[in-house]
Write a structure and sequence with these properties.
The chain is an alpha/beta fold. The protein has 2 domains: 191 residues, Rossmann fold; 155 residues, 3-Layer(aba) Sandwich (Rossmann fold), CATH 3.40.50.2000. The chain is built from 15 helices and 13 strands. A 7-stranded parallel β-sheet has the order 3-2-1-4-5-6-7. The protein has a 6-stranded parallel β-sheet with strand order 10-9-8-11-12-13, with helices on both faces. Helix 2 links the parallel strand 2 and strand 3. The longest helix has 17 residues. The chain starts with a strand and ends in a 7-residue tail after the last helix.
């Protein structure tokens, strides 16, 4: 088979970027029989695409291609007017795995990954342009894709709720990069010094309103723990907290995240909606307890290895933090065990089996 994968999203340094990089890397380690063509469209991020391609090393069955096209133009051509078959650019292929941004027409066996439906379910928390892009793309996916990969039963149910064909949807769990591990004491001390963190701290994320930052802050202050601060990662223009006990860190490089997790007393993650919930696994890997939403994909991923709370109830979140401190050692052990369920090797094997459906008689 000749398998083409759109890797345009690697330039954005998001959870979707991690998914794309790790899937491709493990497919190439697993499969030396099929041919792979990786292509990405970008204008400003060409250097990031080149760096990713270089990082993969040499594989006889691998070719790469960069298309000079912006995300906005890709959306217009492939989602809106839906012209220009992808084969006109990359040549004939047997399998085409599209990105989560654009859905070009193709004569190949069409595979795509839908990571979550947050722009559809919670448009009030998403920029209007992104909502529009995803609505347009989903209408194409619904009609044209042969296989739709989702990271959780929760996302599968979300698709069924808006009329997708159940026979096309396949749950393939995501995982962590093998390099995402508990940091050493030296690495923790280094990140603390760099970011100016002297106190014990809780870790949370606040880039998107879905992360429920206001409730986390209110729950934190209700604890009245003067020896504890709250570290908020992620740029949020609506976030203004006039307190020296809340520290905002707009951006943390990916390689520094394990140390930041490892130094925390706990992760507090009462997100209103997630397609998978990768930070829960990241916290498990760094051996800290997790306080997070008690429903949806987070409950699915976390199992019994975390403290589940009602994200709409501040008292539930604060009680969850207290409980996590009391059960810290037990939760850490359960988290490490839970982590073993998820691996990129499993994800790549399952994805390859779905590609192979293209050669099976219908």
């Amino acid at each position: 088979m000749k398998i083409a994968i759109d890797v345009s999203q690697v330039v954005y340094e998001t959870g979707v970027s991690v998914y794309t990089k790790e899937l491709v890397k493990h497919l190439l380690l697993l499969d030396n029989k099929n041919e792979y063509l990786l292509f990405g469209g970008s204008l400003r991020g060409v250097h990031k695409l080149k760096a990713f391609f270089d990082s993969l090393g040499f594989h006889q069955n691998l070719k790469t291609k960069i298309i000079p096209i912006s995300p906005s133009m890709a959306d217009f051509i492939w989602n809106r007017v839906h012209r220009l078959h992808i084969e006109k650019i990359i040549g004939k292929v047997d399998v085409f795995h599209s990105s989560d941004w654009s859905q070009p027409p193709s004569n190949a066996f069409n595979v795509t990954t839908i990571h979550d439906l947050s722009p559809i379910k919670y448009p009030e928390y998403t920029p209007k342009k992104i909502v529009s892009v995803h609505k347009s793309r989903l209408s194409r996916v619904k009609k044209e894709c042969d296989v739709i990969i989702v990271p959780s039963e929760t996302t599968k149910k979300d698709l069924l709720d808006i009329g997708f064909n159940i026979s096309k949807i396949h749950v393939v769990y995501e995982a962590l990069p093998n390099s995402f591990k508990k940091a050493s004491k030296y690495q923790i001390a280094k990140i603390r010094k760099k970011l100016g963190i002297r106190e014990k701290y809780l870790l949370c994320f606040g880039r998107n309103p879905r992360k429920n930052l206001r409730s986390v802050i209110d729950a934190f202050f209700s604890l009245k723990s003067e020896d504890l601060i709250l570290v908020v990662v992620g740029e949020n223009q609506n976030f203004h907290e006039d307190s020296n006990r809340v520290k905002s860190i707009p951006f943390v490089e990916a390689e520094m995240l394990p140390a930041l997790y490892s130094g925390a007393e706990a992760l507090v993650y009462p997100s209103i909606y997630e397609g998978f919930g990768l930070p829960v696994l990241e916290a498990f890997a760094c051996e800290i307890p997790v306080v997070a939403t008690n429903y949806g994909s987070i409950a699915e991923v976390g199992g019994k290895a975390y403290v589940g709370v009602d994200p709409f109830d501040v008292s539930s979140i604060s009680a969850g933090i207290v409980k996590a401190f009391a059960k810290k050692e037990q939760l850490i052990k359960e988290g490490v065990k839970r982590l073993a369920i998820y691996s990129w090797e499993k994800t790549a094997k399952r994805t390859l089996k779905l590609y192979e459906l293209c050669v099976q008689p219908k």
